[in-house]
């Protein structure tokens, strides 16, 4: 095991847990109003299955119309551990959060300290400089705010005609879907889209602190020749995948008219209902 493979284990104190829960409950009531509709995680009225069904419907429609498109499944490296705090504060400001609230959040973030076990013995504690703590009630909502920056970059790229999403109906296209750090970028099958994907993700890395593992990310094509898809994946330094594939634990790109397509989904629902 290398140093990069180690992950921090959070030990959150009882007093902090109470404070974080109070702030998280306040944030939960308003965050759905400022987070874009392309994000589905941790928000009331938005479900994991909504994202999966939307993606499946889009892929099925493209296949039915015999039109082409590309999907890029983005792999984030230790996403929660690498969020830059200054960036997070800037995102809160841009979404309309007041100075007092942002000060409370900053106090919560900077209160964290770290100790490393060396041969079973802890070293002297030192302050964290980035990242969101596991087990912290605030962390899921703060990550949504951080992920909103990616939405803003994609939206800006569309406005400047650098990226064109996949058309659903006239004047409506889908260019990205987000469920926490599970992100799919969508676009027309063109080198312009490939360059836009890379440009957007590189910029997001720089401003947010989040690291994207391009080598673990996967490019999928709909009605596209294998040679072109391999070339495009090579440009992104990513893997080349084939339909169907799993997204959020569910199959995407299969034939929804076949019973086996729904088998995994039905089993998951049965398992959840049984608990």
What ranges have pLDDT less than 50 throughout 5 or more consecutive residues? none
Largest sheet: 5 strands, mixed
DSSP strand tally: 15
Order of helices and strands: HHEEHHEEEEHEEEEHEEHEEEH
| Spatial ordering of strands, largest sheet | 9-10-1-12-13
The number of distinct helices, counting runs of at least 4 residues, comes to 8
Helix- and strand-based class?
Answer: alpha+beta
From the spread of the alpha carbons, the general shape counts as globular
Radius of gyration: 20 Å
Average pLDDT number: 88
Question: Can you give me a brief rundown of this structure?
Answer:
This protein has 275 residues and is α+β, with helices and mostly antiparallel strands.
Question: Topology of this structure?
Answer:
Elements: H1 14-34, H2 48-65, E1 69-74, E2 76-77, H3 85-94, H4 99-110, E3 113-114, E4 117-118, E5 121-122, E6 126-127, H5 139-159, E7 166-169, E8 172-174, E9 176-179, E10 182-187, H6 191-208, E11 211-212, E12 218-222, H7 226-235, E13 239-240, E14 245-247, E15 250-252, H8 259-274
Parallel strand pairs: 12-13
Antiparallel strand pairs: 1-10, 1-12, 2-11, 3-6, 4-5, 7-8, 9-10, 14-15
Organism: Rubroshorea leprosula
Pfam families: RVT_1
Protein name: Reverse transcriptase domain-containing protein
């Amino acid at each position: 095991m290398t140093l990069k493979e180690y992950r921090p284990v959070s030990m959150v104190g009882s007093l902090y847990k109470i404070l974080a829960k109070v702030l998280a409950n306040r944030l939960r009531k308003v965050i759905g109003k400022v987070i874009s509709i392309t994000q589905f995680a941790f928000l009331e009225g938005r479900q994991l299955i909504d994202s999966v069904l939307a993606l499946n419907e889009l892929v099925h429609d493209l296949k039915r119309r015999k039109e082409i498109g590309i999907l890029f499944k983005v792999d984030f490296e230790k996403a929660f551990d690498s969020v830059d705090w200054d960036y997070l504060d800037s995102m809160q400001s841009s979404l309309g959060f007041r100075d007092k609230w942002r000060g409370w959040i900053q106090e919560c973030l900077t209160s964290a300290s770290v100790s490393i076990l060396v041969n079973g013995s802890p070293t002297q504690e030192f302050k964290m400089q980035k990242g969101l703590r596991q087990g912290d009630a605030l962390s899921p909502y703060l990550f949504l705010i951080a992920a909103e920056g990616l939405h803003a970059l994609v939206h800006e790229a569309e406005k400047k005609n650098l990226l064109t999403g996949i058309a659903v109906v006239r004047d409506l296209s889908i260019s990205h879907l987000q469920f926490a750090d599970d992100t799919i970028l969508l676009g027309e099958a063109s080198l312009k889209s490939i360059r836009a994907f890379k440009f957007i993700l590189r910029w997001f890395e720089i401003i947010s602190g989040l690291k994207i593992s391009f080598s673990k990310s996967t490019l999928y094509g709909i009605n596209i020749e294998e040679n072109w898809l391999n070339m495009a994946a090579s440009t992104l330094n990513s893997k080349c995948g084939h339909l169907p594939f799993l997204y959020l634990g569910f199959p995407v790109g299969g034939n929804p008219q076949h019973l086996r397509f729904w088998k995994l989904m039905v089993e998951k629902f049965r398992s959840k209902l049984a608990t």
